[in-house]
Amino acid sequence: MVIHNLDEQNTPAESHATEQVLKKLGLAPPDFQYRAFLIKLLTEQVAGYFDPKQQEFFLADWIDLEGQKPVMAHELTHALQDQHFNLRRFEKWPKGDSDAELAAHALIEGDATLAMKIYMTRNPLVAFAFIRSFGSTAMPSEQFKQAPRALRESLVFPYQEGLDWATAVYKKSGWSGVSRAFAELPQSTEQVLHPEKYFAHEAPEKLNLADVRSQLGPKWKRIDYDVNGEWSYYLILDQFLNSEVESKRAAAGWAGDRYAVYEAPATDDVFITQLSVWDTENEAREFFDAYAKRTKLRYADSKAAELAASGERRQWTTSQGGVAMEMKGKRILILEGIPGNTDVNELLRALWQ
Questions:
Q1: What is the spatial distance between Cα 293 and Cα 241, in angstroms, rounded to a whole number?
Q2: Cβ contacts of residue 319 below 8 Å, gap of 6+?
Q3: How far apart are the first and last CA of the chain?
């Protein structure tokens, strides 16, 4: 089931692009194999699942009967979601906005996890059996422990942050409010992390990035074009800042972004461009400074260019290509993995258009 779903939802090229992004941003080791690891990780963690196509749900047989009941509550909630709101419409999510897709999954899993939590609260003995089952050696976790942090926490996001978000919606307007959310989807992880922004309908700003293959040269191909979102920016920062408070504060002013990934297959070089917009210029500055700090920690051999003293632009050379950042008002451009023979000024001009 896991392999089938992965093959349906991601082409080999898309999985390769995700792997390259994780490596380039320092979120996974250089030898990391994304698809193979994800299969091992997901099959290790499955306790049950609902399949909208077959209209069936499945349970792992290593959980005792009482411990299975909360899993049933969770998976049967998915069955009810499909009956009323058609879960299959989420299977072919439009490419290019993974942040909004993750927010939609937070609704789906947050709703089911909240139902399961309430069920266990009302049935303490069942809750105890569930905890006992998952606390025993029967629940494998070796792959989960070995998973790169960004991958591990993003897989947990729909359940953990989704539960917090669904709870906020439930407290405000009951189950009818949670049901309405399937018609009025959360549009970003920002809305999930800050439910008040969902209630206020604070939609993210849609950005576009110019294609700079003509500046890079004929050997370069664009392999990805997507959105990071507040959640991913938090993970990118905190991988190196290692300060949850600082990283969350710096990512919290997010208002929209777009990134593009280029690869030179012959050399395996990767170049990433990122354009982001922030709620205020002060919040843009806070993210700008935090990303600069993260960059110096990410590349231990980095050397700042003389122009790095400028408050609006910073630039470094590293063994993995150049890095440049420029801020204009509430917008920030980041270039990472700049090829050595490329005119940085020309790249920046093309991307600011």
A1: 8
A2: 299, 301
A3: 45
Are the beta carbons of 213 and 221 closer than 8 angstroms? yes
Dihedral sign for Cα 179, 168, 46, 14, please: positive
**Cα–Cα distance for residue pair 228/276, rounded to 1 Å:** 9
Write down the pTM of the prediction.
0.93
Beta-bridged to residue 327, according to DSSP, are: 332
Whether 333 contacts 257, CB under 8 Å: no
- The secondary structure element, H or E, covering residue 278 is strand 269-278
* pLDDT attached to residue 105: 97
Phi, psi of 145 (to 5 degrees): -65, -35
Mean pLDDT, residues 319-326 taken together: 95
Tokens describing residue 255? 């208002």
Lowest-confidence region among 35-49, 157-171, 284-298? 35-49
Stated as kind and residue range, the H or E segment containing 306 is: none
CA 350 to CA 346: how far, in whole Å? Answer: 6
Q: Give the strand order in the sheet containing 322-328.
A: 221-226, 254-264, 269-278, 331-338, 322-328, 313-317, 303-304
**Residue 209 in contact with residue 275, Cβ under 8 Å?**
yes
Q: Compute the distance between CA of residue 255 and CA of residue 227 in angstroms, rounded to an integer.
A: 11
Residue type, 210: A
As a dihedral over the C-alpha atoms of residue 75, residue 79, residue 84, residue 85, rounded to 10 degrees, the angle is 70
CA angle 302, 307, 309 (to 5 degrees): 90
Q: Please answer whether residues 8 and 131 qualify as being in contact, where contact means their C-beta atoms are separated by less than 8 angstroms.
A: no
In the block, tokens 């960004």 appear at 150
pLDDT of residue 340: 87
Query: Contact 25/18 with Cβ under 8 angstroms?
Result: no
Q: Which amino acid is at 197?
A: K
